TrEMBL record:
Lineage: Bacteria, Bacillati, Actinomycetota, Actinomycetes, Pseudonocardiales
SUPFAM superfamilies in UniProt: alpha/beta-Hydrolases
Domain of life: Bacteria
Record-given protein name: Lipase
Any GO MF annotation of the entry: triacylglycerol lipase activity
Entry-linked Gene3D superfamilies: 1.10.260.130, alpha/beta hydrolase (3.40.50.1820)
């Protein structure tokens, strides 16, 4: 294998795909030391970069770095988390490039489940080529506890929202990125949840960033309604295990107060498995628990009910335009839950552009939405928006 890689490198790689495959292997083999936390961890303001590393597997026409940077969790504690910054080649325009902070969908909660750890950290960045072609810097947070060691943060809105904002700050700390203070947020599924919280938090947590708009695809919004709808199948049990383990760790909420003995035993094991690559193992554990996972309703059992409510986005008007894409064939984030969220945001006075796509499922919605997203981002940057537009 090493001989083959060496030959390809010497040959300059016969194609872009070959080059990226080889460079991706090199990137993944050398990733281990990058994620090791310094001891002691130095103090730093949110967004301060502790370590950066150029990635060789970047798509043609772009340059990228892994970054390890400071952020803050839901209790205000300092932590280090990781991510990727991608920049289109060429000089930045006068005034710098606008940042799009991309929040990824569910991949798991363990360290090895972080998108930046893999051989192709760009694969999950839905719309990356279009965003780069539009001149944006793309900052992609892994979320705390993924990549760099730390407690899980799954669907903990303040923790993941802060990490998304601090990824943008980290991008600005890389001189070659040419990143300005202008910011747009874009997220899918779990990432939609993180992006919405980032949008809520930005005015107070990162006031130096000039947020112009928030865009989401099939976002996790009303956590109680989504849990009730999804817990009846394997996917619902799996997603719930990620959230319950994260909440138990972050808030000290007892698993035994809502889960069956089998659920209590299985939850920490499921939380260590990645959704991508270990799906079969997750299904083996989760399948017998369908219908036998919950012992009590988390939406009515304390402290779980309050935690679900506190981590549900949309409590107040969003001060910037909001784009929401939803597939009508989505069986994970149900269309009716997203529709209720849109109606609530419209009632609060948020300027919402809502688009639904017939026949599109949960996995496909972000990609399908890209042709509508890019012009919307440009319009949001220019300050154009409609009070409430549903299509």
């Amino acid at each position: 294998m090493l001989l083959v890689i060496g030959c390809l490198l010497l040959a300059g790689c016969g194609s872009s795909l070959e080059r990226r495959a080889v460079d991706g292997l090199v990137d993944s083999w050398t990733a281990g030391p990058f994620y090791q936390l310094p001891d002691p961890v130095p103090a730093g303001a949110p967004g301060t970069v502790v370590r950066s590393e150029r990635l060789g597997s970047t798509p043609d026409g772009a340059t990228a770095w892994r970054v390890l940077y400071h952020s803050r969790d839901v209790k205000g504690a300092d932590l280090l988390t990781s991510g990727v910054v991608v920049v289109p080649d060429g000089p930045a325009p006068a005034g710098g490039r606008t940042i799009v902070s991309w929040a990824h969908p569910t991949t798991g909660t363990a360290q090895r489940c972080a998108p930046s750890v893999g051989a192709d950290p760009f694969d999950l960045m839905e719309g990356l080529s279009d965003l780069l072609a539009a001149g944006y810097v793309v900052a992609a947070a892994d979320y705390p506890g993924m990549g760099a060691a730390g407690p899980p943060s799954y669907l903990i809105g303040v923790t993941t929202g802060n990490a998304v904002l601090d990824a943008a700050r980290a991008a600005r700390a890389i001189p070659e990125a040419g990143a300005s203070q202008r910011l747009l947020l874009w997220g899918h599924s779990q990432g939609g949840h993180a992006a919405l919280f980032a949008g809520q938090l930005a005015p107070t947590y990162a006031p130096e960033l000039q947020l112009a708009g928030v865009a989401v695809a099939a976002p996790a919004t009303d956590l109680g309604d989504l849990l009730t709808a999804d817990i009846v199948d394997v996917s619902g049990v799996t997603i719930a295990s990620y959230a319950f383990q994260a909440y138990s760790t972050a808030y000290g909420a007892p698993l035994a107060s809502i889960l069956t003995p089998g659920g209590v035993t299985a939850t920490p094991t499921m939380a260590q498995l990645c959704l991508l690559g270990q799906n079969a193992q997750l299904h083996d554990i989760a399948s017998p628990l369908v219908g036998h996972y919950l012992a009590a309703d988390p939406t009515t059992t304390q402290p779980w009910a309050d935690l679900l409510a506190a981590n549900t986005p949309g409590a107040a008007k969003l001060g910037v335009p909001l784009f929401v894409a939803q597939g009508e064939a989505d069986t994970l984030v149900r269309p009716q839950v997203t529709a209720a969220f849109v109606a609530k945001e419209c009632a609060l006075g948020t300027h919402v552009t809502s688009k639904t796509f017939p026949g599109v499922d949960h996995g496909g919605i972000a990609v399908v939405a890209i042709p509508s997203l890019i012009p919307w981002l440009k319009a949001a940057e220019a300050g154009a928006s409609q009070p409430c537009e549903r299509q």
